[in-house]
Amino acid sequence: MRIESPAAFAEFRKSAQAKLAQRRAEVLVCCGTGCLANGAAAVAEAFAATLDGSATEVKTFTKRTGCHGFCERGPLVVLRPAGILYTKVKPRDVKEIVDKTLKGGTVIPRLLYKEPTSGQRIEHYQEVPFYKHQTRVAMRRIGHIDPTDFEDAIAHGAYGGLVKALGMTPEEVLREVEISGLRGRGGAGFSTARKWRSCRNAKGERKFVLCNGDEGDPGAFKDRSIMEGDPHSVLEGMIIGGWAIGAHEGIIYVRDEYPLAVVNLTLAIQQARDAGLVGQNILGSGFAFDIRISRGGGAFVCGESSALMRSLEGKVGEPRAKYVHATDRGLYDLPTVLNNVETWADVGAILEHGGAWFAAMGTTKSKGTKAFSLVGKVKNTGLIELPMGMTLRQIIYDIGGGVLNDRPFKAVQTGGPSGGCVPEALLDLPVDYEKLTEAGSMMGSGGMIVMDDRTCMVDVARYFLKFLTEESCGKCVPCREGLHQMLAMFDDLVAGRGKPGDIERIERLSRGMQLGSLCELGKSAPNPVISTLRYFRDEYVAHLERRECPAGICRDLTTYEIMPETCDGCHACFKACPVEAITGKVKELHVIHQDKCIACGACYDACPTQAIRFLPKHQLAARGVA
Amino acid sequence: MSASCSVDLTPAEKVLERYPAEEASLIQVLQDVHRAYNYLPCEVLVRVAETLHVPLAKVFSVGTFYKAFSLTPQGRTIVKVCTGTACHIRGAVQLLDELCRQLNVEPGGTTPDLGFTVKTVNCVGACAMAPVLIVDETYYGNAAAAKVGKYLKGSGGKADAN
């Protein structure tokens, strides 16, 4: 059905909301990637099957929603209107939930979230610490709607911002975005309004609006969840952008590794086109805008703007020098605006509620909210969105619940391969663009990876170098050769073959790459190295001078042994060992055979009595054991 | 190309029909062709170059640049180990080592019977359940090296090793 005018849209929304209001209750089953892997599909099916027969009686509907964010406790089920959150739900729990909670109105304590410190069971999802501290703008509808249900999205406010924008002049829309202070959510933090204005002022009839969905930073998955869980928010932002800039074509570049995002976006575009929100004469305004999807080829560098545009042209994704801005000459050398998925998702809300509303959140220079994926060695892993300016401590401890297994905190990595590691001393740092850059890291695309004392910082730096060596496009020498040489030195460091002067050589090479590389990939490639050297130089020195890995991670430098006085023969290490290097019977002393041991540390992490310790390999050699 | 490549070109023709014959279609075409053949056979690349009016060297350059493409036949079952940062610090290396040990291949390699291809992928965006191992379309979260044999069992590739 085509919606011809703003008045017809208001009518359509009203009827969609009325339809929703008729539902007495809703069962929201999270079907994000994490919950699906834990069996959410079977849970949703069980609900649908159980409720089908009784649906007329209780008027309850099962919805498969996008990612609720609290992946750690999945599969998640939220019952509305009460807002009860059940965690780790199994298909066999479904009948009990229907009988007791939906029909009987009583809560099942066993399935509620248990606060780890107090042991208290929490009933409502808004009260769970993981959700309590969050403010959701870009992810405002995710988890509340079925991403494949157009009416559901409309009833929850989708395209409300577009209707307002089309009632304004493009200049007024630009000013609203300017007031909001919105900056690029892909990580660099460039002013969105300024980018749009340059493109609007650029000469040329044909202009492009692009969405960067090539979320390549390892450890980040917010864009994935937005594209999968609320694709209409992305489309709405792009159409508004097109109106403000004077563009009629939009392309979403989606990462090859995100198949569900492609499916949901494709469906959303079709739905929007059928409703007249994409295509000719949108809502009777005379404005035309079309959107299509382009799948990436699996190259990290294509997240870089100029490389992304080359890839869209069907070419190899190599960046080019930036003396000409994409807003003047981008895709096919025509004026182009490229924004990140999250930025586009923010735009609709800004138009709906006003720029001042958005600017009221956040810090002086970083306005609004920001989505992060909180992962690594943290208790509550998952997807979060919060106002800019919250401290790392609040994020990791209040929302994240602290370090996994209560081990000591060592660092948090932000900004992916272009970012750095922030140490414990800076935990009270408010998170915004400037503060993270000052600390030697960056916002990046919102990955926050928590690291404990069992993380080797030299290994982490080497990990990013290896990643970038594989992903460097090879066009410019400083990046291609610099990374290669740097990685070779790190390979020596972690294997105990480091040479005197290596650390200084690494620092010199880092400066050269920062100055000489063509694009941001190469310029920022040394960041993980520089930041770990800045805060954890002693670990580098230990690897180089003493041939020791203080965290016990680098295999060539580490051995493990069982302390006979502490081992109670629980057999956990035996089960964890992938190479059968441990022998021993239950309730008897276990022994690690050094000739078979690959020093992976699985036994150390599995031992409940801390009976396994690691020590530098040379110490064992000195004892004549190995 | 050499006579040893004898490939049925019909699936490739079908893919090519769906796209405008221009350079901008190249990556999309190669993706669909790759899906149809499970790799990019050399004869198909020649046909793609002719149809889209793109030099063969360019087709080859795109085909080798992007990770999604392979110029050698892939296994019936693709096993991917996520090596994103979160997976890395939660044990992806051990997982990959064990997988390669059991299947007796290098990362990126294919077993001689074309049963399995082992790949690494730089973050699949499922970091909350790190480390992640993906067998075809099935995601295994909090994957453990000791359970690798179990993950491989029941997949189409037939795990002889375990």
What distinguishing features does this structure have?
heterodimer, A: 626 residues, alpha/beta, Glutaredoxin, Rossmann fold, Ubiquitin-like (UB roll), five-stranded mixed β-sheet, four-stranded mixed β-sheet, B: 162 residues, alpha+beta, 7 helices, 4 strands, 11% strand
How would you describe this structure to a colleague?
- The complex is a heterodimer of chains A (626) and B (162).
- Chain A has 626 residues and is an alpha/beta fold.
- Chain A folds into five domains: 18-130, Glutaredoxin; 150-359, NADH-ubiquinone oxidoreductase 51kDa subunit (Rossmann fold), CATH 3.40.50.11540; 369-455, Ubiquitin-like (UB roll); 458-545, de novo design (two linked rop proteins) (Up-down Bundle); 555-622, Alpha-Beta Plaits (2-Layer Sandwich).
- Chain A has 26 helices and 19 strands.
- Chain A has a five-stranded mixed sheet with strand order 12-11-15-13-14. In chain A, strands 2-1-3-4 form a four-stranded mixed sheet.
- Chain B folds into two domains: 10-65, no CATH class; 77-152, Glutaredoxin, CATH 3.40.30.10.
- In chain B, strand 3 and strand 4 (138-140) form a beta hairpin.
- In chain B, helix 1 packs antiparallel against helix 2 (26-37), helix 2 packs antiparallel against helix 3 and helix 3 (42-52) crosses helix 4 (56-65).
- Chain B is elongated.
- Residues 158-162 of chain B have low confidence and may be disordered.
- Classes of the chains: A alpha/beta (626), B alpha+beta (162).
